[in-house]
Prior knowledge:
Elements: E1 5-9, E2 12-15, H1 24-36, H2 40-51, E3 60-64, H3 70-78, E4 85-90, H4 93-102, E5 109-113, E6 124-130, H5 138-151, E7 152-163, H6 169-185, H7 190-199, H8 209-219, E8 223-230, E9 233-239
Helix pairs in contact: 2-3, 5-8
Amino acid sequence: MKKNRYKVDKSIVAKNSSWTFSGNVAKNFDKHIDKSVPLYGWSHDLGLKISDFFVKKNSKIHDLGCSTGTFIKKINLRHNNKKIFINGYDIEKKMVALAKKNNKKSKNVKIKFENISGANFKNSDFITSFYTIQFIHPSQRQKIFNKIFNELNWGGGFLFFEKVRAPDARFQDMMGLIYNDFKLDNNFSPSEIIAKSRSLKGVLEPFSSKANIDLLKRAGFKDITTVFKFICFEGFLAIK
């Protein structure tokens, strides 16, 4: 292993405090996240079921941090009887390339190499984000939430999943240790778990459940509910 680079999975290495979704992470992303985020595939299934309440003919859908475009492909297939328009956004070129490849047959899908802070969500019916907001600098998150609220159609839905902090130190320790057990059960080695944690320092900044809800409320959302909770991972649905 090169100096200052540590193995975090079979085909992925990372530097201290420098986690990135570029390089080998992109091509190994789907396998890695299924192992490292509990019920990740099920969160996609839940997102599809929730989409039925918001997606209609001519709906505009946005997936923030679309990675390999897997969810976009699924939601497009689910609503293929409707004339819908889907935009996916990512700031990693290799992710964008993979997402385009996975959705190359769908003319109604656009994958954009673009920061979501400058994206256009106007007249949207459904906006999704799977474990992306947690990587946005805390100073910018309220602006993103404000933008989503302002540009959603009335009655539109914002569904996002995040790693969350526990409400106090005791619960945080408990959830952290249980999550480490989950990763050990999924055949990550102790050294890989430590290396991943080191690489995420200063890059992944999870908020508590309350802090995420407060962001939504300050943006203007009043109808908010938790739709998923497992250890330190949570899914929120907000309706304008």
